Amino acid sequence: MDTVVKALNASAFKNVRIQDAGNCIAIAFDDNIILLNKTQVSIVEVIKGDTVRVEMGGNTSSTIFLKYSDISAPVVANAGELRDLLWAMLGKVSGGNGGDGDCACAPLIEATNAELKNVTAAVLEGNGKLDVHAQTTTGIYNNGVSLNQIVTDHAAVNAQGLNNVLNETVKVSTNTAAGNNKLDVIAQSSAASSANILATNQVLADNHAATLQTLAGLKTELMNVRTTVSAGNDQLSVLNQGNGSIISNGTNGNQYLASLDNKFGNNGFLGNVSRKLKTITVQPVIGTTAYAAGQVIGGVMTLTGALRAAILSGSWMGVQVVEKSTQKAPIDIVLFTQNPTAANFTDHVAPTWTNDYGNIIGITNIVAANYSTLSTSSGVCLGNLCKRVLSTAGGNLYAVAICNGTPTYASASHLYFTFYFEQD
Question: Are 390 and 280 in contact, with CB atoms under 8 Å apart?
């Protein structure tokens, strides 16, 4: 939104209100509201000791003069505090020391320098991690060669160590948890599986009698591999060259896990065995002037992670509304499966439903009688909604609150909405 303001005479208005409206700064005086696009604000400076000048850039240069003593909300003690308030709404740090002539360039340059330092530190950290990774890959390479040499040179010893493998395999059906841990170890060693399986099969064929007696020493032999066969460490270059086989072996491992999972009857997901509760609290930015019936309160609320991203379904179990006063306004809450058009659901404006009817998946109503008085505050909690809901992507849902009364809230952070979901 591009708003052109030629000038605002500070002495002509004594009840000026300033509010952060997201992408804009709203300046209200008498029955008028001026919206300043944050991206077009180029200068915020103190002049004449008691006045702040706001200069807008863009195609048409515009200037606003604000006398700090004319600001009724929020209350500021001096022009410097008014300037810093505007900088904070812009998401920047004031570049001045309270005097005249502050410029937007200084904080931008300081922020840019800080970010460049962060980038340099991140690059250096990344380089260090790459060095460590390269060293680790070389070690893995060498150790794999050692393992191959051990299988060749110490077949008899390895055959003895396979006795417990057979025993543990027999226990898999009754010791699933222990078996899963061993599968993790097997998966980690899949890089050399193709070649080692052929060698192992030959060892099993040639040394079957000895195999049944020898697994007791396998754990000790594996722990001593690095020192016992250091001369053969150079052979693990095969691992570094065999990254491509890791992908294919991992695919085979996934097939084994899927097959095992089907035996457990969990529909292809070992972890998907129970439902999960999810609670999300949103505090939308609301207006401080009176609402009319049928107007949106606070705009679109994003309910991040309401449903599991891998499943995208569940139930809307309840909703809670808490306010810092006792307006107890009736409210309709509408739930959407995907993000509705934000411009159609603006705070203090009646909603436009044109393109979003098909995305509505739940509606509930809160009446004044539902509220409980909590000293100087009030709140309501509706449970047992049990409405089935779906998400189109990412597990996120979206909500809009529609006012059915005429409340006036004292601050932009006066309402809390809490949503309760049961995830599939």
Answer: no
CATH of region 10-103, choose from 1.10.10, 3.40.1350, 1.20.1440, 2.30.29: 2.30.29
Domain ranges of the chain: 10-103, 134-241, 276-423
Question: What's the number of CA atoms in the CB half-sphere (13 Å) around residue 170?
Answer: 6
| Rounded average pLDDT over 176-192 | 74
DSSP class of 347: B
Summarised one tens digit per residue, pLDDT across range 17-55 is 999 999 999 999 888 899 999 999 999 999 989 999 999
| Model confidence, pTM | 0.39
Tokens of 218: 């396998």
The per-residue pLDDT for range 352-396, each reduced to its tens digit, is 998 899 999 999 999 999 999 999 999 999 999 999 999 987 999
Amino acid at 358: G
The tokens of 60 are what? 């048409």
**H helices, E strands: number in the chain:** 11, 17
Element at 251 (helix H, strand E):
helix 243-263
d(CA 370, CA 385): 14
Beta bridge partners of 41: 56
List, in sequence order, every residue forming a beta bridge with 34; answer none if it has no partner.
27
Given the candidates 2.40.160, 3.40.1350, 1.10.530, 2.60.120, the CATH classification of the domain at 276-423 is 2.60.120
Contact partners, residue 123, CB within 8 Å, separation at least 6:
none
- Nearest-5° Cα angle at 271, 265 to 276: 110
Inter-CA distances, 412 with 18, 37, 92, Å:
12, 19, 21
Report the candidate in 145, 141, 259, 252 with the shortest Cα–Cα distance to residue 196: 145
**What are 371's two structure tokens?**
């509220």
Query: Per-residue DSSP letters for 161-201?
Result: HTHHHHHHHHTTTT-HHHHHHHHHHHHHTGGGHHHHHHHHH
Helices (H), 95-154: 105-153
| Cβ neighbours for 372, distance < 8 A, ≥ 6 positions apart | 378, 379, 380
The residue to which tokens 């396979």 are assigned: 162
Most confident range, picked from 161-165, 166-170, 182-186, 326-330: 326-330
Closest by Cα among 211, 206, 207 to 166: 211
Measured in residues, the chain has a length of 424
pLDDT classification of 168: cutoffs 50, 70, 90: confident
